[in-house]
Amino acid sequence: MRSGIRGRTAVEMAVRIDLAVEDPAWKKSGVGLRRLRDTASLALRRGGSDLPERPELTLLLADDARLQALNASFRGKDAPTNVLSFPAGTNDRGYLGDVAVAYGVAAREAAEKGIGLAAHVQHLVVHGVLHLLGYDHVTAAQARIMEPLEVAVLKELAISDPYQPRATRPRQT
Fold first, then answer.
1. How much is the pTM?
2. What is the predicted pLDDT for the residue at 50?
3. Given 82, 91, 96, 160, which residue has the most CB atoms within 10 angstroms?
4. What is the pLDDT of residue 167?
5. Given a cut of 60, is residue 173 above it in pLDDT?
6. What angle do CA 87, 65, 24 make, to 5 degrees?
7. Shortest CA distance to 110 belongs to which of 123, 98, 100?
């Protein structure tokens, strides 16, 4: 066991999460980059039953314009969105894909929901990583599988259930 990694499982040590910060607002946001890596790693461990030996993914922290362009190019929706996932498909590297989060959309949603930006972005990262692992919520049957898994991961992070009505959720930072 390497120094400084005590208590982590072998899966945690093998996960590689690259972080690309395109929008400088993220650096001033108070959202901890290490926290986001840890969040993505936890979502991988809880959601992936058949992970590659050394799973890799990229988290892109961008602005609304970048996600609007990606959303238009890949989904035909010319509007900004909070999070997008781009599964890599089968490959020999163990690369799972990319998760992109828009700062402005995420910040507005957090304010509207009365929750902290960090907690909301952690939820978006969990959501995006689960999409990389093949989970979806297009149908009610899919949502009944994906949403409880999201809630379980968020609970481990001490984040309230985002699908619960606002009045019954405690405020989180």
1. 0.88
2. 84
3. 96
4. 55
5. no
6. 90
7. 123
For tokens 């899966």, the residue is: 11
* 9 or 166, which is more confident: 166
Answer yes or no: are the C-beta atoms of 83 and 36 closer than 8 Å: no
Locate 122 and state its tokens.
Answer: 């952690």
For residues 76-85, average pLDDT: 97
Closest alpha carbon to 87 in 56, 63, 43, 66: 56
Q: For the stretch 1-35, what's the b/e string if a residue is b when 16 or more beta carbons lie within 10 angstroms of its beta carbon?
A: eeeeeeeeeeeeebbebeeeeebeebeebebeeee
Q: What distance in Å separates the CA atoms of residue 44 and residue 131, rounded to the nearest whole number?
A: 10
Alpha-carbon gap, residue 16 to 28, rounded angstroms: 24
